[in-house]
Amino acid sequence: MADPVSQASSRWRDLDKLLLRPGNLVGPNFDPGTELRDDLQEYAKVLVVGAGGLGCELLKDLALMGFRNLEVIDMDRIEVSNLNRQFLFRLQDVGKPKAEVAAHRVMERVSGVDIVPHFCRIQDKDLEFYNKFNIIALGLDSIEARSYINDVACSFLEYDAEDNPCEETIKPMVDGGTEGFKGHARVIMPGVTPCFECTIWLFPPQVKFPLCTLAETPRTAAHCIEYAHLIKWDEVHGGKPFDADDPEHMQWVYSEAVKRAELFGIPGVTYSLTQGVVKNIIPAIASTNAIISAACALETLKIATSCSKTLSNYLSYNGLEGLHTKVTEFVRDKDCPVCGPGVLLELDTTTTLQKFIELLEEYPKLHMSKASVTYRGENLYMQAPPVLEEMTRSNLTVPLFDLMGKIPKGIVHISGTATKNDKKTSCTRKLRVLFKVIDGDTDMDTATGS
Amino acid sequence: MAEPKTKYDRQLRIWGEQGQAALENASICLLNCGPTGSETLKNLVLGGIGSITVIDGSKVEVADLGNNFMVDESSIGQSKAKCVCAFLQELNDAVKAKFVEESPEALIETNPSFFSQFTLVIATQLVETSMLKLDRICRQSNVMLIFARSYGLTGFVRISLKEHDVIESKPDHFLDDLRLNDPWPELQRFAESIDLNATDPVIHKHTPYVVILVKMAEEWANKHGGCLPSTREEKKEFKDLLKSRMIDIDEENYKEAIEASFKVSTPRGISSRLRQIIEDSSAEVDSSSSDFWVMVAAVKDFIVNEGGGEAPLEGSIPDMTSLTEYYVNLQKIYQAKAEADFLAVESRVRNILKRIGRDQDAIPRTTIKTFCKNARKLTVCRYRLIEDEFNSPVLPELQKYLTDEDYSVAIGFYILLRAVDRFATNYNRFPGMFDGEMDEDISRLKTIAVGILNDLGFNGSTLTEDLTNEMCRFGGAELHAVAAFTGGIASQEVIKLITKQFVPMSGTFIFNGVDHKSQLLLL
Ligand SMILES: [Zn+2]
């Protein structure tokens, strides 16, 4: 057997071709050499958000593309229906946290890689947690979760006096998504390429059936199922919440849907369809997840090393009819409230923190309630947990101007609940606060400004 | 073992139980189990493929640990086929996993009949000479074949088989089959039974748009000498006419009618897609014809006879604003017509089978029914032998790829991927494998690639220096992410071929890992 030193160097024989050799089709500032490979392994920290179909693939792909410092966050536990694609999980793992099992399995097979699992909601982590990563890779299936991570990553972005993004504050994201035989992979460089919010129209809100159709003129099996789920359940169970993960609840909805379908002569209600409609199940297969994750992992390596050009900026894949891949260069929304220079808020120097938090609720572009406020990483006021709330409560009566060290303008981060399309979502925003000059102490400013 | 229905739930929603059964009955052979091959099989094993046979003659080396998830430290020095097979088995105990420790090249050379036992062969990382031989072997024994290759930041996937017919192509967007341009008597009668001027607002706003359009089209035709709206102005006028009948601006059914009004003006008769199939020479059937072509022949006869120029009716209608009763009745009318069309086609199928000397009941009713329901969406895929493509590519396409900016990288990689194999034949290694010979290798590779282009009658100036350099930089590396990508594509195509659902890719997929502007080349 070979000695350990030559083992280490020959293990990355294939990857080294890309990292150790100069090339003509590479990214800016590409500096090939063993140092690049060593730095990648030592310093590059990547967070994988989601340990599902995409997340499992991403962890494996990144570990085999030379990354050694990975963390993964997922709040879910393993279910039987995951096993057709989430290849890091076995039948005996059902019920265990996905993040923990996924991290363990990859570390078991790829020596040298370190993966820290986080079995919690993405909202449970503070900004500092997210800020320590060089790149965030997203393997999610919900728009809300993507929006949240996008908010977080964009909140680190700072602009210079000319409104150009400061390079060292850019937190790159690589995002993948799949549905059946279709998927997308994209690279988001906040401030440079469009963020998730800039192109939110790519994800149109899900159409819901009008309640009057369900109640009065059902025509399809899905209408009968939604009637049982949304109307009949409450009528009969008054107040008891419906739990989609409780098989008895699902069975009840199914049999009610069958009854209704028989009444109206509507065919097609099955147990499987009932589950599909009620849980809004998106079909998923191993191959599409593999394709999309591979594209994301490759782009992650390129961002970290510049070893090749990058995807600019959105790749779509469709394998339904033949095979179609397409790269689209979407453009940024210059007025994007998330990745732009920030919503500008003009305040009096006397405005208290309490008053400021109240203002956020009515402010047109924000509508944020229950906001927590941080300034330069310091908590000015935290709504939760209770300990922090108590510690920061006394700040509420202090003018924000004073809390920010009496500077004329600055950036604060707020996080709270915003209402979008009648839905409450947690979000994080960056605010540019400008204090209005008051006679007397700022005469000079006014004079020189004109 | 978990209940397979729950385990496979997310994929059963795509290809159904029939598709799943086809996968579970398939036996797959993999040649070479580097990352490209291993990742391809992984996706199929997870989905519950019937059996796999992994063929690889090499032992696991340290470098394999850097790109293949299916081997680990303890595998070093052992048969790669054995280690990969063991890991794959761990993923799904329902799969029968076997391995053969032998070099695929040797097997192709010495035991060509070995391959005829499989449903499909996945050949990864083969060089040109072996590819061409295997292609001929599989073509002769009617075994489906798919090639996948990962090479640095490029690679390709190519299907090779004589013909693949798809009944359930399940396209994403396909115009529904409502026949609003040519309603049959029962549909017309049903429309007549409903009064569009109903004074009851509930009925008025719950009259399905199909009825609205059938009636309004008739009204239009009566005023226009029997013609339906055809010019842009007429179509606009027709929409205005529909709008004028609304008694409330919120009537969803009228909005749907306006949106669907173009369906009244679509030309009658079958699409060019279906016409091409019924005019194919295979539709002249004899005793050696497949069931697919027997059914095509029956549908062809149906179209010119009972169908009056139309294909059998699909029979399903989209959801639309309507009273439940109207909608259910409308559904029944469409289903009844579809059933009648199916019976007509079925009797033609039976007659044809008898005429060509086969058992009249050789094709089950359910198959004929599915065929009729999908008649408008039938797809026939044919693939050239690789050797034919290499020796005589479709010149106008090649010309286009060489001059069109969008294709320049893809066609460059296509030529260079062939060139590295010739390089390997000459030098017994891939270009750029050793740092010391980089410059010589670049000019050698360039000479070979220009030679390939010259042989096809093109000059080599289209091949950029950047790309040739890049190809040498790759030095034959098999990167995990690239392997996972090409392997993912290959497994996706295998699923389509085996389930006989969805349309498999045509041509050669050239992966471009530089900027992801990958292309399909139809040569
Ligand atoms: Zn944005």
From TrEMBL, chain A:
It is an enzyme of class 6 (ligase). Its EC number is 6.2.1.64. Pathway: Protein modification; protein neddylation. Residues 345-436 form the E2 binding domain. The active site is at C212 (glycyl thioester intermediate). One of its GO terms (biological process) is protein neddylation. Signal peptide: none annotated. Keywords: ATP-binding, Ligase, Nucleotide-binding, Ubl conjugation pathway. GO terms for molecular function: ATP binding; NEDD8 activating enzyme activity. It catalyses: ATP + [NEDD8 protein] + [E1 NEDD8-activating enzyme]-L-cysteine = AMP + diphosphate + [E1 NEDD8-activating enzyme]-S-[NEDD8 protein]-yl-L-cysteine. Catalytic subunit of the dimeric E1 enzyme, which activates NEDD8. Belongs to the ubiquitin-activating E1 family. UBA3 subfamily. This is NEDD8-activating enzyme E1 catalytic subunit.
From TrEMBL, chain B:
Keywords: Nucleotide-binding, Nucleus, Ubl conjugation pathway. Residues 8-501 form the THIF-type NAD/FAD binding fold domain. It is found in: Nucleus. It holds the Pfam family ThiF. One of its GO terms (biological process) is protein neddylation. Pathway: Protein modification; protein neddylation. GO terms for cellular component: nucleus. Signal peptide: none annotated. Its main location: nucleus. InterPro entries: APP-BP1 (IPR030667), ThiF/MoeB/HesA (IPR045886), ThiF_NAD_FAD-bd (IPR000594), Ubiquitin-activating_enz (IPR035985). GO terms for molecular function: NEDD8 activating enzyme activity; nucleotide binding. Regulatory subunit of the dimeric E1 enzyme. E1 activates RUB1/NEDD8 by first adenylating its C-terminal glycine residue with ATP, thereafter linking this residue to the side chain of the catalytic cysteine, yielding a RUB1-ECR1 thioester and free AMP. E1 finally transfers RUB1 to the catalytic cysteine of RCE1. Belongs to the ubiquitin-activating E1 family. ULA1 subfamily. This is NEDD8-activating enzyme E1 regulatory subunit.
